[in-house]
Structures are given as structure tokens and as C-alpha cells.
Amino acid sequence: MKTCPKCETGKLSDVNDIVHDLEGYFFIAKGQRCLSCGEEYIPERELQPIIAVARRLGLWGQPLKLHRKLSKSARGTVLRIPADIERELNIKGDENVAISKRGRKIVIELE
Ligand SMILES: [Zn+2]
Predict the structure, then answer these.
(1) Domain extents in the chain
(2) What does pTM read for this prediction?
(3) Average pLDDT over residues 2-19
(4) Most buried in the list 31, 66, 75, 107, measured by CB within 10 Å?
(5) Direct distance between the N- and C-terminal alpha carbons of the chain, in angstroms, rounded to an integer
């Protein structure tokens, strides 16, 4: 077994239940945990799928907040979906969405 780089005394044991917190989303990853200080290490190859999922959720590498202006049409208020979000989520423009209100936020979910 390897020695923990942090406390330099503990041994690292293989575990598969490391909870990785990314912007409030929790991912379970494989890795190693120090038997002495409890420090957890997730190897790069285990992080890749988490990063891939995070990208799909828009949590990684993309601006989380985009500013857009609403516009008015004869039938109501129109919000244009930014092209990068369309690409990211594969939006074709004929999907059904669920729109809900959470406080001052409007949440649009693809169905
Ligand atoms: Zn340690």
C-alpha cells in the first residue's frame, strides 16, 4: 500500500464510496482513502466520467449564468435559448418543456 502524501504516515486503502461534491451535486467515485487522516484521493481516470456528466449538466466549463433579455411578441413574452445551451442540450426546437417557478427563478426542464 502507498503512504498518504498528506499526513505521510497513514496507508491508503482502495475504496469505492468517495463522495465528490461538485456544485451541490454529489458523485460517488472510486479512489483511495487514508486509514490514518481520512484524506481521500480520486485518480484522474475516475474523475473523467464525473467531469463528463458535469459537462452534460452544465456544471463544468460552461458559464452557469447567461444574461438574456426577454422580448415581447403578440402572443406573450419570448425568451431565446442561447445557441451554446441549445448545442449542449441538443435542443432542436420542437421539444416539450416543463416550466416552473422557484422563487424568482424560472426553471425550464426538457421533458
Ligand atoms: Zn493521511
Answers:
(1) 12-56, 71-110
(2) 0.50
(3) 93
(4) 31
(5) 48
